[in-house]
């Protein structure tokens, strides 16, 4: 079944992973890099945030990782929980558990995040602000009772210009 990935900031709990039992040896920046490297193999990440454990807990860190896709988050959770990935002790990884009844305001992505998301899922790089208009000319030929359709495409490029405001 296909998954709809909206061009919006992911807020759903099924797109959020909580990662804990991160060792206290490396810096938060080094852990961020390691987590990004490991979890980006499963899909496009919206964010990776690393936090120090609370003062009452053991020294170390935990992280919150957000995916654009709930399917990618679930695959990452199953593959990484209780595994030795980049440190000597296994990580604990769980999907978010916020209740579904909680509604959050939807925020649009900024333009660079939209480009990154489109490039990832549509498979190419380099978007343009130009509008390209495709015109299709088709005609039918009848050949011994069979209908054949031939198409000829013409592309016209026009530079996008916003309307002038008076």
Describe this structure in words.
By secondary structure, the protein is α+β, with helices and mostly antiparallel strands. It has a domain at 13-97 and 111-122: RRM (RNA recognition motif) domain (Alpha-Beta Plaits, 2-Layer Sandwich). 21% of the residues lie in helices and 31% in strands. The chain is built from three helices and six strands, in the order E-H-E-E-H-E-H-E-E. It has helices at residues 28-39, 70-80, 111-122; strands spanning 16-22, 45-52, 61-67, 92-95, 131-143, 146-158. The strands form two sheets. Strands 2-3-1-4 form a four-stranded antiparallel beta sheet, covered by helices on one side. Strands 5-6 form a two-stranded antiparallel sheet. The longest helix has 12 residues, at 28-39.
């Amino acid at each position: 079944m296909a998954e709809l990935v909206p061009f919006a900031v992911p807020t759903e709990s099924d797109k959020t992973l909580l990662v804990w039992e991160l060792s206290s040896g490396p810096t938060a920046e080094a852990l961020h890099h390691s987590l990004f490297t490991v979890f980006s193999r499963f899909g496009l990440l919206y964010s990776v945030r690393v936090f120090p454990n609370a003062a009452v807990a053991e020294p170390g860190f935990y992280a919150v990782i957000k995916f654009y896709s709930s399917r990618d988050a679930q695959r990452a959770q199953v593959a990484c929980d209780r595994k030795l990935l980049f440190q000597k002790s296994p990580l604990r990884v769980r999907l978010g558990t916020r209740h579904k009844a909680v509604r959050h305001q939807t925020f649009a992505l900024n333009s660079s995040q939209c480009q990154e998301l489109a490039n990832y899922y549509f498979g190419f790089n380099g978007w343009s602000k130009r509008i390209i208009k495709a015109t299709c000319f088709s005609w039918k030929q009848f050949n011994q009772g069979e209908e054949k359709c031939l198409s000829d495409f013409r592309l016209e490029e026009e530079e996008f210009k916003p309307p002038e405001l008076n």
